[in-house]
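**Polypeptide and fold**
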Amino acid sequence: MILSDKTLQAMLSAGTLTITPLIEDQIQPASVDIRLGNTFSVVEDSPSGMINMENEIRYKTITSESYILLPNQFVLATTMEYFDLPDDLTAFVEGRSSLGRMGLFIQNAGWVDPGFKGEITLELYNANRCAIELKAGRRIGQLVFAKKDAPTLHPYNGKYQGQKGATGSRVFLDNENQR
């Protein structure tokens, strides 16, 4: 069941859902608007010109109030908000239609697990022929929350728990856990 603004406001007031910082008009009828944070990360060039999933990927991270996303460029960004989801709530990351119409795609994996705590890393791609200026604090997307039928048996406690800032891929850790 997708949660309404009334339910979201009640959960925020009761402290069972935490979103900080949050201003009242971010709460929409069936979602919460998310704003762009001020850290951006791009994959550093590698000597081989190739990325593999067995080794840690190196990123160049900057803190800035704006970032110029060039045509056909990919950048990691973060939400301004920090989230703390209870064990019986999940969320979906969705882009804003008005930004998609400019050619800005939010390529997020799209899923926030129950029990997640942290800022959400967003994968942004400029499909336009023109550069797009990204500004911290601007509404970039929305979270749609859904209530689970019961609390999860194993709340999220993975490699991105507690993340702050634009956090690069940690897929190489999957390989270490499989050895």
